[in-house]
Design a protein that fits this description.
Elements: E1 4-10, H1 13-20, E2 30-33, E3 40-43, H2 45-49, H3 62-67, E4 71-73, H4 77-91, E5 98-102, E6 105-110, H5 115-133, E7 137-142, H6 145-157, E8 161-163, H7 167-175, H8 187-195, H9 201-205, H10 209-227, E9 245-255, H11 258-278, E10 281-292, E11 302-313, H12 316-330, E12 337-345, E13 348-349, H13 362-382
Parallel strand pairs: 2-4, 7-8
Antiparallel strand pairs: 1-6, 1-7, 2-3, 5-6, 9-12, 10-11, 10-12, 10-13
Helix pairs in contact: 4-5, 11-12
The protein binds a DNA duplex through α8, α10, β9 and β12.
Length: about 425
DNA sequence: TCTGGGGTCCTAGGACCC
DNA sequence: TCTGGGGTCCTAGGACCC
């Protein structure tokens, strides 16, 4: 009896979230689109069966969706984030050692249990999460995270639970698995491995350590060791401190003027600073980037520049001025821009930053902190964007992303609660 | 008209130091 | 005539994940 990792993942998560409060979607093909209503990022089982691909651009397939009665939704992160939190809270009851790996996945560590009781626990997890949140989940169980991920793939095809423990069983499974389906082996490396004659996960598992190290670096070697049931990737039950933070968006339509870009970048800095304060961090540097559409034949321009700040800060105003300065430096007129973004780097906890003589202090600092506080509270209370800098523009914003088919924020907005008759 | 957003880690190579 | 060797730090770019 050793320690086992459970990989719990929500089936077709975003599509399942849409169904929880809209049962009429049950049995129908459902897809959820990325921001800007761009491409497909989630599909119900029925949508997968129709051959709708992950990542396909939605605008090219409108007619097909209409013909097959596909229900199409803009993404609703307020809803998905809240549903995710409910699922994770439920899962945390099954192990004190849990790692929330993504919005729809969680690793749990269970120690010293027999195979039979592991499987029994996994079944209980499935039924509890379904009953309490309405979300269906699958559970993969193995000694390492990488094998638990593989087991999870199998669970989806079977009855929702799969244990990978026995060596022969593992080899059989890995022999049927392409290298690109192994957690940590991406498309690029899969193609390279195929060229070397390594086609299945089993082929990869059987390559010598130094070969793997040479061709796939240490990360690849860790993956291979994990395929051999040697745990190398630890459970991270406390998330490591964030190192960077991004706010970026594609525009609803192409943007050419500096004024519009300034509005967009201004609003992204404000959002980024808000996230920064919520995490209790300060940033030491700001980066701004700008790009044209890489799918269109129009002239292309990509630019990005990073500048250190005079002192680490989480103050919107202190981040705003340098960000807009960078934008003006990298902007070139005459291009149709598609996307811009702000990145905050060199993050550190608010308390332990180096003091600088350039930094506001005393009364001035107290006033600025109080201002940020009012900003955050107003935007929490009255909704995002209630209180902003004038630089992000007033009135209609032509650069705003499209979001034409969003469902209500059923669980996080008083105004959008579902009605029960 | 129309193709997402937000992260992490690793390595190579240059700058710099003694 | 002849021009070292070893170390650290930083950054950009590429790979990966969801």
């Amino acid at each position: 009896m050793r320690d086992f990792h459970l990989m719990v993942d929500c089936n077709n998560f975003y599509a399942s979230c849409e169904r929880v409060f809209n049962p009429g979607l049950e049995g129908k093909p459902v897809v959820v689109l990325s921001n800007n209503d761009g491409c497909v990022i989630a599909r119900s089982g029925e949508a997968k069966a129709l051959g709708i691909a992950m990542g396909e651009p939605a605008y090219k397939r409108e007619a097909f969706y209409a013909r097959h009665g596909v229900r199409v939704f803009s993404s609703n992160y307020a809803l998905y984030g809240d549903m995710s939190a409910r699922v994770m809270r439920t899962l945390s009851l099954f192990s004190a050692e849990a790692e929330v790996y993504s919005i729809d996945e969680c690793f749990l560590l269970l120690r010293g249990m027999s195979s039979a009781s592991l499987i029994e626990t996994a079944r209980e997890i499935r039924s509890t999460v379904k009953k309490w949140t309405g979300i269906p989940v699958g559970v993969g169980i193995a000694r390492t995270k990488t094998l638990a991920k593989a087991a999870n793939r199998l669970a989806k095809r079977g009855d929702g639970v799969r244990l990978l423990e026995d060596d022969e069983d593992i080899d059989r499974v890995l022999g049927d698995m392409e290298t690109g389906d192994v957690w940590g082996i991406g498309r690029r490396n899969a193609r390279y491995l195929a060229a070397c004659g390594v086609h299945t996960a089993l082929d990869l598992k059987r390559r010598p350590d130094d070969w793997v190290r040479r061709h796939l670096t240490v990360t690849g070697l860790r993956t291979v060791l994990e395929l051999r049931q040697t745990p190398c990737i630890a459970l991270e039950d406390a998330p490591p401190p964030a190192r960077s933070l991004v706010c970026s968006r594609s525009f609803g339509r192409r943007v050419e003027s500096l004024e519009s870009l300034e509005e967009a970048v201004s609003s992204y800095v404000q959002r980024a600073a808000e996230k920064l304060r919520r995490k209790g961090l300060v940033a030491g540097a700001v980066q701004v980037f700008l790009e044209t559409n890489r799918f269109q034949p129009d002239p292309k321009h990509e630019a990005s520049l990073c500048r250190a700040l005079p002192a680490p800060t989480a103050d919107t105003l202190a981040l705003h001025a340098p960000a807009l300065k960078i934008l003006r430096d990298i902007y070139k007129p005459g291009y149709k821009y598609q996307k811009a973004g702000v990145i905050l780097l060199d993050l550190a906890p608010t308390g332990q930053r180096q003091l600088s003589f350039l930094e506001p202090r005393g009364e001035e600092k107290r006033k600025r902190d109080a201002l940020m506080n009012v900003l955050d509270r107003a935007n929490t209370l009255f909704g995002r964007g209630a209180l902003t800098l004038a630089a992000s523009g007033v009135g209609k914003k032509e650069w705003h992303m499209r979001q034409e088919r969003r469902s209500p924020r059923y669980t996080t907005s008083w105004a959008e609660l579902p009605l029960v008759r």
